[in-house]
Design brief:
- This protein is an all-alpha fold.
- It has a domain at 1-41.
- Helix content is 79%, strand content 0%.
- It contains three helices and no strands.
- Helix 1 runs antiparallel to helix 2 (31-45).
- The longest helix is centred in the first third of the chain and has 21 residues, at 5-25.
- The relative contact order is 0.14.
- It comes from Streptomyces monticola.
- Residues 14-23 have a biased composition (Acidic residues).
- InterPro entries: Antitoxin_Rv0909/MT0933 (IPR028037).
């Protein structure tokens, strides 16, 4: 685990939370566009899809 991995985790949390907030405020009217924007933001940050999925699975495992 590199020093930037923690920053990527935090950035991914922010991207996810902002997308969720937009979805909530718009009643999911723009959900496909929001999801696409989240994906592009993750790409720009260098966050891979598999890192996202691993993180989601870890959160489910902790419940």
């Amino acid at each position: 685990m590199g020093i930037t991995d923690g920053f990527k985790d935090k950035a991914d949390d922010v991207i996810e939370n902002v997308g969720d907030e937009v979805d909530e405020k718009t009643g999911n009217k723009f959900k496909p566009q929001v999801d696409k924007a989240q994906d592009k933001a993750r790409d720009a940050m260098g966050i891979k899809k598999d890192e996202q999925q691993d993180k989601g699975q870890q959160g489910q495992d902790q419940k």
